[in-house]
Amino acid sequence: MDEMRPSSGAAAHLGLASIFPPGLQAIYGESRRLYPDQANPLQVTAIVKYWLGGPDPLDYISMYRNVGCPGQDVPEHWHYVSLGLSDLYGDNRVHEFTGLEGPSGFGFELTFRLKREAGETAPPTWPAELMQGLARYVFQSENTFCSGDHISWHSPLDNSESRIQHMLLTEDPQMHPVQTPFGHVSFLQIVGVCTEELQAAQQWNGQGILDLLRGVHIAGGPWLITDMRRGESIFDIDPHLQERVDKGIETDGSNLSGVSAKCAWDDLSRPPEDEDDSRSICIGAQPRRLSDKDTEQIREALRKGLEIKSKSVLPPISGQRHSHERPQSRKDSLESESSAAIVPHELVRTRQLESVHLKFNQESGTLIPMCLRGRLLHGRHFTFKSINGDTAITFVSTGVEGAFATEEHPYAAHGPWLQILLTEEFVEQMLAEIRDLSTRDVCKLPKEYSWPDKKLKISVLPDTVFDSPLQ
């Protein structure tokens, strides 16, 4: 990527503001408010800038030494601040200028707080690569992050043996939103978490788990500082916290309305000799439209990803483009080039199916119990959007208005988008029979569950099945 060098941020501080990019200057100004004695911080910089064809979207990552707050039992730590997700220049070289009142670029920058180890005199640089990986995902997919989002990384954030292998996002406790000449910018802090905490966030909600982390000093404390040497989850430290999560799921359900996943579906009611793809356009009854609220929730579901990996970033839902190209427009997932799950209603009509076979990889399969318990039993829906193609599978409860799947015809396809309506009684039956999916240590794959009377089959398969070009 990059190299570490003293900050060019000192330029604005030394009176060169007239030639200093205004967006960059605004973020440096907020950093100087917190760190008046660190006007020239160390930075990791992209040697070849993104707008010149380089691979790294963040022009700079500033690294500050934060003394913490002894009164709140906040330890000394390193504070990382990205520059590049917002519009730094205002000349359309990276971001399209949309006006002073809207977001600057994507409207946010990333921050990260890493506990300073005894004897450390300089900040580790691996968080900069982590932030670049997240920024690449945002630029490629045009999907933005929000406070409470979770990111499944499946690898120690620092490539060590640490249990901290995933992330939650929250508002930075010290950085205030800033108004720049190119729009407003907020600061989202990355919080490292272990697998048990990620699963709890998926099953309940990210904000609830963040609140629990704030109350456990060694797991983050009030400023949510990541300690890569933490070996215990908050549930190991305080077993009573699991009761709070269980109660929260029972009371609130899950606010996770969907994930990008490895999944597929087959229409078992179609004769094998039918050469048409089971997800092809067909003639049928005109679908009833989802309510505006449900449509927006599904859009949000397809904007958020299950797997954002350090080795292979989640493919963009909105269609591939070269990483150095400036986005021409920001499309919602359902209107994107690569997602045909929802296409114009005048072109695709709903087809009612008699029998379906759902296929998921292991990680997606472990989320099915959460989908049923945390979403459908609360009158909601949940979407699995394939990362390998156009397929989408949405489970809906009888409480979701406007779904094109009905109790009379519970399986319905709209192009490659399959909806499955499940009654509360059937959900309870399924939960009893797929109990072993609640843990990621699921038994040997493939694993199959079948409800012949409902003409529904679910298979949990190895990842290689979905990675095949024939899938």
Number of helices, where a helix is a run of at least 4 consecutive DSSP H or I residues: 12
Helical fraction equals 10-25%
Shape: globular
Q: Taking Cα atoms only, what radius of gyration do you get, to the nearest Å?
A: 23 Å
Percentage of residues in strands? 15-25%
Count every beta strand, where a strand is a DSSP E run of 2 or more residues.
Answer: 19
Sheet of most strands: 9 strands, mixed
Secondary-structure class: alpha+beta
Average of per-residue pLDDT values? 83
N/C terminus separation: 34 Å
Folded structure, characterized:
- This protein is of the alpha+beta class and 471 residues long.
- Helices cover 23% and strands 24% of the residues.
- The chain has 12 helices and 19 strands.
- It has helices at 10-13, 22-34, 126-141, 195-203, 206-214, 234-237, 240-252, 292-303, 362-365, 368-375, 424-433, 463-467; strands at 2-6, 42-46, 60-66, 77-83, 103-115, 150-152, 166-171, 178-180, 183-193, 258-261, 263-267, 350-352, 356-361, 381-386, 392-397, 411-414, 417-422, 447-451, 456-461.
- Strands 1, 2, 3, 4, 5, 6, 7, 8 and 9 form a 9-stranded mixed β-sheet that branches. A 6-stranded mixed β-sheet has the order 10-14-15-17-16-12, with helices on both faces.
- A hairpin with a 2-residue loop joins β8 and β9.
- α4 (195-203) crosses α5.
- Mean pLDDT is 83; it is low at 4-17, 274-289 and 304-347.
